[in-house]
Amino acid sequence: MILNPHISKFIKIGAVLFCFMCLFFAINTASKYEYQKTETEIQSNKVRELEEKIRELTIINQELLHIRVILAQDREQLMKEISSLQKKYPELEDWKLTSKNEP
User: Fold this and answer.
1) How far separated are the first and last CA of the chain, in Å rounded?
2) Where does the record place a coiled coil (predicted)?
3) Which 3 state secondary structure label does DSSP give 28?
4) From first to last of its 103 residues, what are the pLDDT tens digits of the chain?
5) What does pTM read for this prediction?
6) Residue 83 phi, psi dihedral angles, 5° rounding
7) Fewest 10 Å CB contacts: which of 46, 50, 94, 102?
8) Where are the domains of the chain?
């Protein structure tokens, strides 16, 4: 089968153009994939950093709650001690009156 040389030339040009189009499509797809992969890695790194910060803040929060409980217990203990001392030494309340009455 002998083809017209012009038709044969167009078929060759068409095949080359098709190959370039496929190559361009493959490069474009690979570029989009790499970009998305990079964005995904950046986002996953941010998520890991935020999770680590959440863990640190949770630990700090637990420590602060523990300190708060201790301070509340200390306050109650001091209030009990003050109350017992006031009952034991009622004359100590008189100093407030004398300091106010002095000129």
Assistant:
1) 131
2) 47-88
3) helix
4) 456 777 788 888 999 999 999 999 999 999 999 999 999 999 999 999 999 999 999 999 999 999 999 999 999 999 999 899 888 887 766 666 555 555 5
5) 0.55
6) -60, -45
7) 102
8) 41-89
How far apart, in whole angstroms, are the C-alpha atoms of residue 53 and residue 60? 10
Q: What is the DSSP letter of 3?
A: P
Instruction: Map residue 24 onto helix, strand or coil.
Output: helix
Assigned token pair, 26: 């493959």
Residue listed under structure tokens 């004359």: 91
Task: Enter the tokens of residue 55.
Answer: 């863990």
Alpha helices in the chain (DSSP H): 5-88, 94-101
The residues, any chain, with a CB within 8 Å of residue 92's CB and separated by 6 or more, are 85, 86
The contacts of residue 61 (CB under 8 Å, 6+ apart) are: none
Kindly state the tokens that stand for 6: 């012009």
